[in-house]
């Protein structure tokens, strides 16, 4: 009887947690959609909700015929940027949550394996040589993948694949590519190229176009789907190797898959909008504060919360002042106080 009571209470608790999760996720998704619609309205050329919807849903509103200017502003300028903000925010947040779970390190972020700095090197190199936007994105993706390949190669030098070796290798590779980025900035024309590189390094979505977003979206979507499918298994990646082997859990394969999917997301996001910090570090902690440490809930919550956070930040960046504010500056301004709040509330890091 006692065992039956415990099982009953556990089953009731699981149902309550799942119900709470579904309710909060539905609310956050609704808020995200409303925020996206609001973002399409805001800007120097302000539009009403009806005007935006008449562009998005042509023929559905009698007596409301969108003008050429309205169509251009919504479809070609703001919509690609809103989509990019949602994808980048969701991707960076989920990558951060996956890395924190994989490495059992609350300070892990999308750049733990040097992916972000590696991808940024390819991008600034493309800017230095005056390449078109699509080629800059391709180079960024390529160098991001090279960074991960270097990390994996270095971590296996002593025939070990421990998490500590991977993290240390990521720090070394990140430092190497950071130095290479500084070298490119040193060689760049200070009157023309250097300002472009500096602004891109601060994170910006001004260059978002239909073509660039469509080119970078597949890798982010594929990475998000992969991490979504692995969210159940991330809880067991911290088990000792022998214990996991006795349970028949392929921990090494899971770790490799997580690293590959998170790398794809990070490299693609960096290639489209530059280096954006704090999102992958803070959003997963906020998700754990709401739903606990179960990655089954943390990863989907991080996806929606990261998208909402980045969309709000980008909307503020382009509408608060006459000139656009770099996104990474705003994420740091918001992120640092929130991180201090986490430290004071938890006595450490939320987990």
Description:
The protein has 13 helices and no strands. The chain has 351 residues and is mainly alpha-helical. Helix 4 packs parallel to helix 6. The radius of gyration is 22 Å and the shape is globular. The mean pLDDT is 83.
Fold topology:
Layout lengths: L1 H40 L7 H8 L11 H36 L11 H14 L4 H23 L7 H25 L5 H9 L8 H20 L11 H6 L4 H23 L5 H13 L3 H25 L7 H20 L5
Helix pairs in contact: 1-2, 1-3, 1-12, 2-3, 3-8, 3-10, 3-11, 3-12, 4-5, 4-6, 4-7, 4-10, 5-6, 5-10, 8-10, 11-12
- Measured by DSSP, the beta-strand proportion falls in under 5%
Order of helices and strands: HHHHHHHHHHHHH
Shape: globular
Main sheet: strands, sense, barrel: none
Helix content: over 70%
Unreliable segments of 5+ consecutive residues:
none
| Distance, first to last CA | 34 Å
Total of DSSP H or I helical runs spanning 4+ residues: 13
Mean pLDDT: 83
Number of strands: 0
Based on secondary structure, the structural category is: mainly alpha
* CA-based gyration radius: 22 Å
Summarize the structure.
With about 350 residues, the protein is mainly alpha-helical. The protein has helices spanning about 1-40, 50-55, 70-105, 115-130, 135-155, 165-185, 195-200, 210-230, 240-245, 250-275, 280-290, 295-320, 325-345.
Task: Offer a few descriptive terms.
351 residues; single chain
């Amino acid at each position: 009887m006692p065992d039956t009571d415990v099982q009953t209470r556990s089953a009731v608790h699981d149902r309550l947690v799942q119900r709470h999760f579904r309710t909060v996720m539905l609310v956050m998704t609704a808020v995200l959609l409303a925020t996206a619609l609001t973002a399409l309205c805001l800007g120097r050329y302000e539009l009403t909700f009806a005007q935006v919807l008449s562009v998005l849903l042509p023929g559905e509103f009698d007596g409301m015929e969108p003008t050429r200017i309205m169509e251009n502003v919504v479809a070609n300028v703001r919509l690609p940027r809103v989509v990019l903000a949602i994808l980048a925010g969701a991707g960076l947040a989920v990558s951060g949550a996956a890395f924190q779970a994989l490495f059992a390190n609350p300070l892990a972020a999308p750049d733990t394996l040097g992916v972000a700095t590696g991808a940024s090197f390819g991008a600034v190199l493309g800017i230095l040589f005056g390449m078109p936007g699509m080629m800059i994105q391709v180079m960024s993706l390529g160098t991001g993948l090279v960074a991960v390949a270097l990390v994996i190669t270095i971590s296996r030098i002593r025939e070990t694949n421990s998490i500590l070796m991977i993290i240390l290798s990521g720090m070394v590779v990140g430092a190497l590519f950071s130095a290479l980025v500084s070298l490119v900035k040193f060689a760049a024309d200070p009157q023309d190229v250097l300002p472009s590189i500096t602004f891109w390094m601060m994170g910006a979505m001004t260059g978002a176009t239909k073509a660039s977003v469509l080119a970078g979206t597949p890798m982010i979507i594929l990475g998000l789907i992969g991490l979504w499918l692995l969210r159940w298994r991330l809880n067991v990646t911290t088990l000792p190797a022998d214990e996991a082997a006795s349970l028949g859990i392929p921990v090494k394969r899971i770790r490799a898959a997580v690293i590959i999917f998170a790398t794809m997301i990070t490299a693609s996001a960096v290639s489209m909008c530059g280096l954006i910090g704090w999102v992958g570090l803070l959003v997963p902690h906020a998700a754990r504060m709401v739903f606990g440490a179960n990655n089954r809930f943390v990863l989907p919550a991080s996806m929606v919360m990261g998208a909402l956070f980045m969309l709000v930040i980008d909307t503020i960046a382009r509408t608060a002042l006459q000139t656009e504010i770099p996104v990474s500056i705003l994420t740091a301004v918001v992120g640092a106080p929130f991180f201090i709040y986490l430290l004071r509330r938890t006595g450490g890091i939320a987990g």
